[in-house]
Specification:
- The protein is an alpha+beta fold.
- It folds into two domains: about 40 residues; about 50 residues, IHF-like DNA-binding proteins (HU Protein, Chain A, Irregular).
- The protein contains three helices and five strands.
- It has a three-stranded antiparallel sheet.
- Helix 1 crosses helix 2.
- The protein is elongated, with a radius of gyration of 19 Å.
- The two termini are about 20 Å apart.
């Protein structure tokens, strides 16, 4: 689903204008991004939780050449779905 489709669907269900819905969605995304960058977990009731996890640096062996390579440490956005979402997918 594209953002414009999401905005249109939310506007239709709530009776708000598309412009106002877009502003609300943008503000929500901004707040979630700020909290994630601050190291907090963002929990969306009924959907799941988002968090940024630190992945450690690791060494791998290239399968064709056999040479060792170092993959540097990085931060990764992780999503853990709620049990309601897990059951709906099954």
């Amino acid at each position: 689903m594209l953002t414009k489709n999401l905005i249109a669907n939310i506007a239709e269900k709530t009776g708000m204008t598309k412009k106002r819905t877009e502003e609300m969605l943008s503000a929500g995304i901004a707040v979630m991004s700020e909290n994630l960058m601050a190291g907090k977990v963002v929990q969306l009731q009924g959907l799941g939780q988002l968090e940024i996890r630190e992945k450690k640096a690791r060494e791998i062996v290239h399968p064709r050449t056999g040479e060792k390579q170092l993959i540097p440490a990085k931060k990764q956005l992780c999503f853990k779905p709620s049990t309601l979402v897990k059951e709906a997918v099954r």
